[in-house]
From TrEMBL:
<keyword id="KW-0805">Transcription regulation</keyword>
<dbReference type="InterPro" id="IPR000835">
    <property type="entry name" value="HTH_MarR-typ"/>
</dbReference>
<keyword id="KW-0804">Transcription</keyword>
<dbReference type="InterPro" id="IPR036390">
    <property type="entry name" value="WH_DNA-bd_sf"/>
</dbReference>
<dbReference type="Pfam" id="PF01047">
    <property type="entry name" value="MarR"/>
</dbReference>
<dbReference type="InterPro" id="IPR036388">
    <property type="entry name" value="WH-like_DNA-bd_sf"/>
</dbReference>
<dbReference type="InterPro" id="IPR023187">
    <property type="entry name" value="Tscrpt_reg_MarR-type_CS"/>
</dbReference>
<dbReference type="InterPro" id="IPR039422">
    <property type="entry name" value="MarR/SlyA-like"/>
</dbReference>
<dbReference type="GO" id="GO:0006950">
    <property type="term" value="P:response to stress"/>
</dbReference>
<dbReference type="GO" id="GO:0003700">
    <property type="term" value="F:DNA-binding transcription factor activity"/>
</dbReference>
<keyword id="KW-0238">DNA-binding</keyword>
<protein>
    <submittedName>
        <fullName>Transcriptional regulator, MarR family</fullName>
    </submittedName>
</protein>
<dbReference type="GO" id="GO:0003677">
    <property type="term" value="F:DNA binding"/>
</dbReference>
<feature type="domain" description="HTH marR-type">
    <location>
        <begin position="1"/>
        <end position="141"/>
    </location>
</feature>
Length: 150
């Protein structure tokens, strides 16, 4: 199993490298035909999928510092893509929630992302894609559970 763990680690490092490069985000934004600062798009996507989210929680999820995320959420709010409301978990916290305008943008980004992924998987069999999706979800869920124990 040592060889497989090394291969998995190397694949994860390669994927992390791809995901952290600015070019794929810029290409996705261009393909979606939206006008959005590349730094804001991961935050908008997390708010859409997991919101409402407080700044501290969003910063933790994005791996960014609180002050940076606070400024970026303020920018998203000024663009009309998110709004702030009392958190359902703690009324003292103002949470970011997606607006209708923000949802239109994330829908366009999702459609562009789907097209890119379909192109990447064009040579794969449906069974392989299903197995990849199932195993990645299982691994991600286990990793998220592990992080919560830290």
């Amino acid at each position: 199993m040592g060889k497989e763990i090394r291969q998995l680690r190397e694949a994860l490092l390669d994927l992390t490298g791809v995901l952290n490069r600015p070019q794929p985000d810029a290409a996705l934004i261009a393909a979606a035909g939206v006008d959005l600062d590349r730094a804001l798009f991961p935050l908008l996507a997390r708010v859409e999928r997991l919101g409402p989210l407080g700044i501290v929680e969003l910063a933790e999820l994005a791996g960014r510092d609180y002050s940076t995320v606070s400024r970026q959420v303020a920018k998203l709010e000024s663009l009309g893509l998110v709004s702030r409301c009392p958190s359902p978990n703690d009324g003292r916290v103002r949470a970011a929630v997606i607006t209708d305008q923000g949802r239109v943008m994330t829908d366009a980004l999702d459609a562009a992302r789907r097209k890119i992924i379909e192109e990447l998987l064009a040579g794969w069999e449906a069974k392989e894609v299903g197995e990849l999706a199932r195993l990645l979800r299982k691994f991600a869920d286990d990793a998220l559970g592990w992080v919560k124990t830290l």
